[in-house]
Amino acid sequence: ALLSRLQNLTGNIQVFCRVRPLLSRDPRVSHNVPLAVDVLSITDVAALELKTESVFDDNTANTAPWKMFTFDRVLGQHDSQLDVFREVEPIAQAVVDGFKACIFAYGQTGSGKTYTMEGTPDQPGLNQRLLAHLYDSLAMRGVVVNDAAGQATFTSPPSNHETMYQVNLGVFEIYNENIRDLLEPDNPNLQIHTDGDTGEVCLPQLAMEAAYSPQHALGLLAQAQKHRATCRTNVHDRSSRSHCVVVINVKSTTGLRGTLYLVDLAGSERVKVSGVDGDALKETAAINKSLSALGDVMEALDKKSAHIPYRNSKLTYALQDVLGGAQSKTVMILNVAPGFSTASETFRSMQFAERVR
Ligand code: ADP
Ligand code: MG
Fold this sequence. Notes:
- The chain is an alpha/beta fold.
- Strands 1, 5, 6, 7, 8, 9, 12, 13, 14 and 15 form a ten-stranded mixed sheet that branches. Strands 2-3-4 form a three-stranded antiparallel sheet, with helices on one face.
- It has a single domain (2-356), classed as 3-Layer(aba) Sandwich (Kinesin), CATH 3.40.850.10.
- Helix 1 crosses helix 2 and helix 8 packs parallel to helix 11 (343-356).
- The protein is globular and about 65 Å long.
- 33% of the residues lie in helices and 22% in strands.
- Magnesium ion binds at residues 113-114, 239-240, 264.
């Protein structure tokens, strides 16, 4: 089954949809009209239906009561964190094999992006599960360098020729088209560099810390979150107004290089522009710019366009190699809430997904 899922992931870009359960704090119109989003229980056509009257008030724009959207995979309220992990498990495998891969969580604020990526202490999300899986897979193949002393011997392989692996981790946030290092907060404005010879894109100033174990890696992620929180503005919850990118590099003494990017995107919701100015307006403009640039790039890749407009935002520029790499893999997880009150944003998210797949 794992093999078939791996084959399913061979397309460069996959789009999944995850519908979170209705929470007690969600407004609920009536108990007879439960949800605006319905996951169809068809396994070979992953699809969900959105009740269109919840989107179009006048009912003239659309005559069908439901609109169906299909995805590579749809996960509903009964799918656990583990179920979601199982769907992207082949990604961790690909990284161990030396490929680049990227997982995005896209959706409006409150739709479950952070729950999907970070999770909660009781219900850990993809970051933690993928890291654990990564170290497990590496340990089966060789020695994971697990302390500072081991790190020193990494450059000269041990005499028994056992393969040694090293994992390095970095975290950055993109806020108002500015890239900030979250492990090294003294690096508030990272530059993106394109290698003149190879054309490879990198962030040379990004602090990449050696991560000796899953626990150590999680400690680094917690540290990054702390740095992120200290910079929260009073006006807005900054965590929903910025993109957060975790970069995990795997390298081996055999020359293998794999990279995994885990991205918790800024909330995709429309923000009322009337009445806001200054910082709020700047934030909104930056988010709109980078999310639409992401859509443009994914659409251009899907259509195999001659020109892929990576440079239209810091997000797409920084992720250029993994988005466009011939052998790299990207999974976009579209997070949506099931309620009526969020249906028009859900509809916009669906339209975004339709564009990129
Ligand atoms: P976002 O990061 O998109 O703004 P969150 O991940 O913070 O949204 O989710 C909003 C709330 O919904 C949180 O309290 C979170 O714990 C809860 N939640 C999200 N997805 C699920 C899920 N699949 N199951 C249970 N609770 C969820
Ligand atoms: Mg969040």
